[in-house]
Amino acid sequence: MSFEVINPATGEKVSEIPAWDSQQIESGLASVAVASAAWRNTPMEDRCALMRKTGAVLRANKEKYAEVITQEMGKLINDSRAEVEKCATVCDFYADKGPEFLADEMIESDAGKSYVAYLPLGTVLAVMPWNFPLWQVFRFAAPALVAGNTGVLKHASNVPQCALIIEDVFKEAGFPEHVFRSFMIRASQVQSLIEDPRIHAVTLTGSEPAGRQVAATAGTNLKKSVLELGGSDAFIVLEDADLDLAVQHAVVSRFLNTGQSCIAAKRFIVVDAIAEDFVARFKAGVEALRTGDPMDESTTLAPMAREDLRDELHVQVADTLAAGAVAITGCEPVEGPGAFYKASILDRVEPGMRGYHEELFGPVAIVIHARDEQDALRIANDSPYGLGGSVWTQDSSRGERVARQVESGCTFVNGMVKSDARLPFGGVKNSGYGRELSSHGIREFTNAKTIWIK
């Protein structure tokens, strides 16, 4: 059994990496367990120093790592470089802020001295996706390791080279052996890992079905879990929006990473008064995207990560069109080799259509018409998901008022939804629970332990 690397731009096999057998898994767990006991007692300043070195290793090898990302999952090469840099930034952030975020919290009580100490839980299992194959891992690993936890990674099966790179980065930075390990295993083996007493918590970024399975197993075994699942982010355009600004960000927000992002804008909810104008400008911006080789810096729309994902997306599009939606542009695969899909806009999407209710994970924008602000809010919240969202209006007070009513883990006013190490990140409803990044993220996998002294 092995993991095949298929270049999504060409459909050609690049490499093959052996999967682990049961003996390798047992050896890996045993090694991490030994490392965990020593790592949790390593001084905070030493853990932070190693995390700062990790950022330096990432920057020193940026081009090499970026090429692997593009080769494995098809991301535009400039975006791959930016992803490596973002990983380095989150390492720097927690190296700087870790001591502050995890400092003992003094609390007045009937004791002579009482406080909360934030102590590591142990080993955190991370089940991670392919769409940001380095960033998704580092945004969990940087805070978890600084907090004194060890990490075990089960990465997506189509990015095994990235999984091995991440383990090597920590080794090159000087982390002790086995503090972070990439296990080359299949999804079917995750349950037994969660059940193993040497795993103390689990974090997953991925699909809603996968999240439900992981949460159920973690719950049965009374282990902490954090889930970042799918999203169908609303992009609300009110009648007083700056349309040029809104359209500029709409194109980037939807088609960045070929639309394969949980926090990409997916549902463009536009009030009737400016809907026709918005769609016309949006169409022009979308049709200006250039499909091609992701290693070519002039390409602006890369392939999707796999051909099966492209085919599933097209079925969703076809079903939505059959139900009465209007194809403004695209809405079909690109002929020829690779997993390319045309940049697409579906207009007049309504309840009952697949495009209205489901997450479309690819380069397809859904336009839904709203009567007014209140109707736009109703539509935005008429979704099982609640990850992110944005509001576009030239009245920032109005935007803030609307943003507070959107049911999501974050809402941006006149800005594209993004993850930022300084801000907590996560969702509500079927988009999961728990938070990553900021002080909230580093404390997720700690024991908030009360110390009471008379």
Question: Describe it for me?
Answer:
This protein has 15 helices and 20 strands. It is α/β, with parallel strands linked by helices. The chain folds into two domains: 2-229 and 431-453, 3-Layer(aba) Sandwich (Aldehyde Dehydrogenase, Chain A, domain 1), CATH 3.40.605.10; 233-421, Aldehyde Dehydrogenase, Chain A, domain 2 (3-Layer(aba) Sandwich), CATH 3.40.309. The strands form five sheets. Strands 12-13-14-11-10-16-17 form a seven-stranded mixed β-sheet, sandwiched between helices. The chain is globular.
In what order do the strands lie side by side in the largest sheet? Answer: 12-13-14-11-10-16-17
Overall tally of structural domains: 2
| Strand coverage percent | 15-25%
Provide mean pLDDT, rounded. Answer: 98
Identify the CATH homologous superfamily of the largest domain: Aldehyde Dehydrogenase, Chain A, domain 1
Q: Which radius of gyration do the C-alpha atoms yield?
A: 22 Å
Query: Using DSSP, what is the number of strands?
Result: 20
Biggest sheet descriptor: 7 strands, mixed
Query: Which CATH top level class of the largest domain fits?
Result: Alpha Beta
Condensed summary:
The chain is α/β, with parallel strands linked by helices and 454 residues long.
Which key features would you list for this structure?
single chain; 454 residues; alpha/beta; Aldehyde Dehydrogenase, Chain A, domain 2; seven-stranded mixed β-sheet; 20 strands; 42% helix; 20% strand
